[in-house]
Design a protein that fits this description.
2 domains, 7-stranded antiparallel beta sheet, two-stranded antiparallel ribbon, globular, 31% helix, alpha+beta, single chain
């Protein structure tokens, strides 16, 4: 009987995971019913981000703020880049950039800033204006000089899409919690990085420089990131949310800045002209942070 009960429990768990991952897929009578949860599912669905525990300042024995760069060209970071083409995927699967942009447009994400120090808050109109450029062709200027007022066919609009995103910059805090006795990490903000839309597609323009478009205060975006699912290659019946993925640090990154006495200067500012030495310096910062936990137990 015990084995039978265990088998029933496992079967029920798998069934719940399947139904929540692709709601009503097996019971759908038409494709439009896929993804629509039943009333019973909505009642038992407590789908919200796991709340952070309260951390008193007196419990933080040591801390350091670091800035990191997530390169989307690396294979482990591809879940943050795809899907680029959204015509053949469900509405709850979007890239990280599209998820942030959707949350901003819907008003779910409001804490958006121009820099990582959160000094200048950006409005929705300011954010949208950084995502496109409108150009008038030479033929359009000729028509204007000739007195024509309708030159819509001579206007080109260049849009910045998720396909143009090269990576993400993140800001986080490493701290030692003396109450728990362990080293922890808390993500504070993230920013999509892309070429300047004002130089994209133009000849004789340097598009090598990558700029953060905006900085999002991460705790304000957790709800929107939690509802967007990431494809799980090992088990498509149990997708993972962006909130879970980022809080678990399931990405590869390189530290490009740490808080220091020199005004939080970048690694590239004092290790110049040698990419290898810059990577070694970044790894040294990582090792110093990791060693803090073991050093706390050495007297």
């Amino acid at each position: 009987m015990k084995k039978r009960n265990i088998g029933i429990f496992i079967l029920a768990t798998v069934w719940v995971q399947i139904t929540f991952a692709q709601s009503n897929l097996l019971n759908a009578k038409k494709p439009s019913d896929i993804g629509k949860k039943t009333a019973e599912q909505l009642i038992v669905d407590n789908d919200k981000p796991l709340a952070y525990g309260y951390i008193d300042d007196r419990d933080v024995l040591w801390s350091k703020v670091v800035w990191e760069y997530i390169d989307l060209n690396e294979r482990i970071n591809l879940p943050y880049y795809y899907p680029v083409d959204t015509t053949s995927v469900s509405t709850d699967r979007r890239s990280l950039f599209d998820t942030l942009l959707r949350g901003i447009k819907k008003g779910e994400i409001t804490e958006v800033y121009d820099d990582s120090y959160f000094t200048a808050k950006m409005s929705k109109a300011e954010i949208i204006s950084k995502l496109y450029r409108i150009d008038t062709t030479d033929a359009g200027f000729d028509e204007l000089n000739a007195g024509s007022t309708n030159i819509d066919e001579y206007i080109d609009k260049v849009n910045l899409t998720s396909q143009d995103i090269e990576g993400f910059k993140i800001k986080g805090l490493w701290y030692f919690d003396k109450r728990q006795g362990e080293l922890k990490y808390r993500l504070l903000a993230l920013a999509p990085v892309a070429p300047d839309v004002q130089t994209m597609g133009r000849e004789n323009e340097d598009v090598s420089e990558q700029l953060p478009i905006f900085w999002v205060w991460f705790p304000d975006a957790r709800k929107a990131l939690h509802h967007m699912k990431v494809f799980n290659q090992k088990n498509s019946a149990y997708p993972i949310s962006y909130d879970h993925l980022l809080n678990a640090r399931r990405f590869n990154s390189i530290i490009y800045r740490e808080e220091n006495i020199y005004g939080d200067r970048d690694v590239a500012d004092y290790v110049k002209g040698n990419a290898l030495f810059q990577v070694l310096e970044s790894n040294k910062i990582k090792e110093d942070i990791r060693d803090k936990e073991s050093d706390m137990w050495n007297y």
